[in-house]
Amino acid sequence: ERPRPPRHSATPSAASRLRSAGGDRALQQQMGALYQGYGTHYVDLWLGTPEPQRQTVIVDTGSGVTAFPCEECKKCGDDYHTDKGYKESKSQSFAVLGCSECMRGYCATMDGSKKCRISMSYAEGSSWSAYESRDLCYAGGPHDASLTIEGSQTNIEDVALDHIDPVDASQFAFELVFGCQVSITGLFITQLADGIMGMENEKTSFWKQMHGKDAIPRPEFSLCFSRQDVAKREGTGAGAMTLGGVDTRLHMSPMVFAKNQKGSGFYAVHLKGIYLRDGGGKSAGDVTSDASRLHKLSIDEGTLNRGNVIVDSGTTDTYFTSALAKPFKDAWKKLQGKAYSHTPVSLSHAEIDAMPTIVIVMQGCQGCAVVGDETDEDPDKVPNYVGGAFAEKYDAKDIVIAIPASHYMEFDSDTGKYVARFYTEESSGSVLGANAMMGHDIYFDTARGRVGFAESDCDYMRLVSEVGSISSPGHVSAAKTEVSPAEGEGGDESEEAVEPTDMEEEEIYAEVEEIMEEAQELEDEIAQEISLPELPTPEGDPEMGEGANNGEIFIPVPSPPLPPANDGKDEVDPDSYQLFNGNESPVQTHKKFGAGGGDVKGMAAEILDDMKHECSSGGCRLVAALSILAASVVVIILVRRTVARRRVVRQYQEAELEISDLALDSDDDDEHEGYVDEPPQIT
């Protein structure tokens, strides 16, 4: 039997590791990247200490359990999944739940001991079996590197901060109870993601445990799905997940709300009608702009909602009641001139765009408590509101959702063909799957009984780049996690930072200025090198071409730093922060990125002066001075190398010219006196 840390060992528990950090964490919500799976979307989940391990999990609003393969699981998809199974024996914070702690499972004998067993089976034939366990984890973050876990503190509700940067993810760490899978079958073996993340409205769901451990301040989350035609094993970005709220910066239209028809478990909505829109259209505003193109399917409201209509991100496709089959297929044939089928077909992008758009009218949240985040715009001007666009009598604030062909037609990269993924064959109930959710940021506001919809391109990385929150890679540690010491093990001991004295500061400043003076002398030396007379070049040499190089010498020199990010508010001075242009000398370029066109010494003086004003504490000034000192040393080394390189190149070119002159003399001798196999005499 493999070694496994006992639940009651001397090793500090994950809870004590988290508590040891103490203090408040000023966080509102966390946003992280989603990746394209085989029709579904998954997120990175990092678990364990001291070295977090990645497990990718399908985000599933139709499941209440997070689970993935552990060490016991044999032949569990290693050849298909993004990662190998979770090695729980390598985590110091991993623990198996005892029978008195079962959350979703039931007490059973597994592997010779009592554990909380969970077994799940699915209609399409897949199944898995696991035991409940817990470990420290966080979701999202950089895709290929774990982050330092500094501890999980109590969050503060009344602050609004941006937390879309991947390197913020570990600040939301908490203890998760999950299923450690020992066997899986069917699609769970062949899917791209390692496991599943339960996101339904249950106490065992990921977001609810996260909220219960104070990792997020509010019991809500949102999912924003985009889609790529090809899902790569190394990761294909396809949307964003926001834990603890919703981020309106992703939205292309105001968010509108439908009433959540269920208080627990699945998220269900009530449909009022369904249409096919002739000529396509991607936005709800586009498809409702011309009512004459909307063809209502003949099905009564009660039949359409029989057995619930759920929003299920873990189901790849969209499935409707079989009662919709005939009206849907009749309308399709009328518009397309051919029968609707799931046979793969070759289509151009233009042909897909012209195919009918499926339009759903959903009951709004009339009667819901006013929260304050509802749009007060005229319903006729809000794309996802019905307004007065339909001939049928709907409430103006009922909701319109468009499912264009680019979402329900799935591309098969193996065959190069498209397959229709909208089905009308369910005996009871309907499912709005991942392809119906695409193109929307969907907000699951469980506390207020709402499901929000806003149209979006779900471009997480664009948002991150626009906000400018991507932090330095220096914040990322490859598969290493720092854990705060446990209580009672020296964790309360602290050292006060020693402030440098004024004399120490002055000594550092003097040393920096001395180094910068030396850099200035070297700069002047380079300038003298550049001002040397041009070397002569052979005229009329057919190998070099007419006017070749014009006697100019090109010496590689270090480039100045890139310009700081500009938010578009201020115009950039054309003479500032330029890289080397054309044949400008290093001296010319140096002056361009120096303050006011000054020299190195002047630039250093200005930097030191700014530092004294901006840094209020001695510690700050010491760190800044040491940083400048280190940078100065690097500059001097680079400048010295440049000077040496310039001298070597010059000597090489002079020697090359001598050899060239001798070769010309030899050619002249051969032309007039014949070839002589003797070295030329040099006088």
Give the SSE layout.
Elements: H1 14-19, E1 24-25, E2 30-36, E3 41-47, E4 53-60, E5 67-69, E6 95-96, E7 106-110, E8 113-121, E9 127-139, E10 154-155, E11 174-185, H2 187-190, E12 195-198, H3 206-212, E13 220-225, E14 237-243, E15 256-259, E16 268-269, E17 271-277, H4 284-287, E18 294-296, H5 301-304, E19 309-311, E20 318-321, H6 325-336, H7 349-354, E21 357-362, E22 399-403, H8 405-408, E23 409-412, E24 417-420, E25 422-426, E26 430-432, H9 434-437, E27 440-445, E28 450-455, H10 460-467, H11 502-530, H12 586-593, H13 600-614, H14 618-673
Helix pairs in contact: 11-13, 11-14
Can you summarize the main beta sheet?
15 strands, mixed
Uncertain runs are: 1-27, 470-500, 530-601, 655-683
Total helical elements: 14
Question: What percentage of residues falls in helices of 4 or more residues?
Answer: 10-25%
DSSP strand tally: 28
Mean pLDDT over all positions: 75
Q: Label the overall shape.
A: globular
Radius of gyration: 34 Å
Please state the structural category: alpha+beta
Give the terminus-to-terminus CA distance.
88 Å
Beta-strand percentage?
A: 15-25%
Provide a short characterization of the protein structure.
With 683 residues, this protein is an alpha+beta fold.
